[in-house]
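Task 17 of the worksheet. Students: predict the tertiary structure of the chain below and write it out as structure tokens. Keep your answer in the requested format; marks are given for formatting as well as content.
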Amino acid sequence: MKLFSSLLLLLVVITVGCSRKTTAASKTTTTTPTTTTTTTTNEPVKPLLDSAEAAEGTTTAPAAPAAVAKPMIIVDARGNFAVKEEDLPPDASKSILNNSNARAYTPAELKTLSYRYGQIPPRILYVPTALQKKNSRGTYYVFMKKYWYWQKSNGYFYLDEHYYK
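Model answer:
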């Protein structure tokens, strides 16, 4: 009987101890009084001027942020052209549509890409100048925050070879 009561007591202690860990903690909220003051003035709000504009008395409207174009897929993972010649941007070279580099990945390259990364990225991209980055190795673009593309002499960006070789 003594053993049974000690086991029962141990079971109750464990249950109570575990139940405290699983219940939600009580939330305490404190409120502080806030004061609101409203002032009305008859003068319109004037934008801040730099010293040159203040001296001349002229103001210039702030420039609207320029719309940044997205990169355009030229050749997809299957080696197919994803864009027509009419849809290419005006500053893009039209010679890409006759390029022999526009080919699909080999079966070994596809296997490597799918095993390492779980997806097959496009082969060739057109990247607007605003999105291009430069370093000591050349001009590059990072696609989907994962794949590095390097610019070649024709102006298009090709997937870095270390992904599939």
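Marker's comment: The first strand starts at residue 72 and ends at 75. DSSP finds three helices and six strands in the chain.
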